[in-house]
Write a structure and sequence with these properties.
mainly alpha, two-stranded antiparallel ribbon
């Protein structure tokens, strides 16, 4: 028996409900008589642009941002590390990363399977759900959009161990890290069956004819909701990657900085950025690209994408200005380095909240994150004595933690938020669930704690393995000479 006009997964789900219930569901006009959902050209166009914007964040955005912050003898090495990371991870993603992240399986709460390895079945006819009932986008486009996230996340780690990491060790570590850390965590946060699967299961419960049929339908509804990532099941909200990207990369960067050791001369010599002009250009490109990162994560060209865009504007501006003022008061002068650092801190903090918070809440989040990340990159860093070269932990991890927890607060409609999505109470509609402060914030804290422990522990193991195999750090004479010449045989600037 085949069920027309429905996705294969939904067809199989209805068949499992039993013949009587399935026939009853087929009588529903919304399911049986309407054609299968097709992507809208506006959504396709927006998601293509968003995908390119996130690529812009990595190259040249992140590469120039990081490149300007290191010394001139290491500029080319940073550019190479970021670009090589992007190229390698893009290949890993299409080989097996997308499949592990966005398919179900025997362990679907923690990791997917290999059903879509080498993009098997991901063709131009395949679509995936968005966050609205009855709305889909091409799966190949969704795969490409998520690929840009997989590429930029490990590239962030590069900044924490800059100017002393062996190039071969870095590539091996990143290949292992995306496989064992990024793919599982992204799966646990973002994998679910989509709103239409929940709507169909909830409607089956509503029309069940007797108690036995209702019990079976409830079991199937629970099965649909259980076929999701662990943190998603906890109720954790992460609109665009506060946990998956920023906390994840930030804690991995801190672990790497501690395990690889401080740069030669750290705390004694001046290890100043060689080109704040390049850093400013990189930061500006990051901000522009981040609109694809945040607003694109809505997967549709609708009003929620507009909200995410506005929040990405105002929270970032607030954080940049906040860092500027705090540094001005603390150090006597407002620096460009501080201003661009605050801008990135605001982008990081608003990422998980961008589609859930209101603009005023986002401004408050930006103001707090600018000051908090300044403290983390100065007082906290000096007190603990670690050499996180480009403040990956202080900005991405601290900003990500603040933003992730604040999302559980700012989503409250009373504070201008959108409310927590509910696809079950009114099947076929997206409504806001009743907001409860305790459960909402607790879910965010659990997600943050899990990310810190999981990523931190596994990253430490991977660093150790790579160090034993090829050695994490370059020899001292190579570090003094600069990685541009010794690792790549080139210079960023001709003498």
């Amino acid at each position: 028996m085949s069920i027309p006009n429905l996705s294969p997964n939904l067809s199989r789900f209805l068949l499992r409900l039993g013949a009587g219930t399935s026939l009853a569901l087929l009588a529903l006009p919304a399911l049986a008589n309407s054609p299968a959902a097709q992507p809208h050209k506006a959504d396709i166009g927006w998601m293509m642009v968003s995908t390119l914007l996130v690529l812009l964040m990595t190259v040249p955005g992140l590469a120039l941002f990081y490149g300007g912050l290191v010394r001139s003898k290491n500029m080319l090495s940073i550019l190479t590390q970021v670009l090589a990371t992007l190229c390698m991870v893009a290949l890993i993603w299409v080989f097996y990363g997308y499949s592990l992240t966005f398919t179900g399986g025997s362990f679907s709460s923690v990791i997917g399977g290999f059903d879509k390895a080498f993009l098997r079945g991901v063709d131009l006819a395949a679509n995936v759900p968005t966050f609205s009932n009855g709305v889909v986008i091409p799966e190949m486009l969704y795969m490409a959009f998520q690929m840009t996230f997989a590429c930029i996340t490990p590239a962030l780690i590069v900044g924490a161990i800059a100017e002393r990491a062996r190039f071969s060790a870095l590539l091996i570590f990143i290949a292992l890290w995306v496989t064992l850390v990024y793919f599982p965590l992204a799966h646990m946060v973002w994998y679910w069956q989509g709103p239409d699967a929940i709507a169909a299961a909830a409607k089956a419960v509503a029309i069940a004819g007797d108690e036995a049929a209702r019990k079976l339908a409830l079991e199937k509804l629970d099965a649909v909701k259980a076929d999701a990532g662990l943190l998603f099941q906890w109720g954790a909200l992460d609109f665009a990657g506060g946990t998956v990207v920023h906390i994840n990369a930030g804690i991995a960067g801190l672990v790497g900085a501690v395990m690889i050791g401080k740069r030669i001369g750290y705390g004694r010599d001046l290890l100043a950025p060689h080109s704040l002009t390049m850093t400013m250009i990189g930061a500006a490109l990051l901000w522009v690209g981040w609109f694809g990162f945040n607003a694109g994560s809505n997967l549709e060209a609708n009003t929620t994408a507009v909200l995410a865009m506005v929040n990405t504007f105002v929270a970032t501006a607030a954080a940049g200005f906040s860092w500027l003022i705090v540094e001005w008061v603390a150090k006597g002068k407002p620096s460009l380095l501080g201003l661009v650092s605050g801008v990135v801190a605001g982008l990081v903090a608003v990422t998980p909240a961008s589609g859930f918070a209101g603009p005023m809440g986002s401004i408050i989040l930006g103001l707090v994150s600018g000051g908090a990340c300044f403290f983390a990159c100065t007082t906290l860093k000096n007190a603990l004595g670690y050499d996180d070269s480009l403040d990956v932990f202080g900005i991405h991890c601290v900003g990500g933690i603040l933003g992730a927890i604040a999302t559980g607060i700012l989503v409250n409609p009373a504070l201008g938020g959108t409310g927590i999505p509910d696809y079950e109470s009114k099947p076929g509609e997206l409504v806001a669930a009743a907001y409860e402060f305790g459960p909402a914030v607790l879910a965010q804290i659990k997600a943050v704690a899990f990310t810190l422990v999981y990523s931190g522990v596994v990253s430490a193991i991977l660093y150790k393995v790579v160090d034993l195999v090829v050695g994490l750090r370059v020899p001292q004479d190579h570090e003094r000479q600069g990685l541009d010449i010794v690792a790549h045989g080139e210079r960023a600037y001709m003498p």
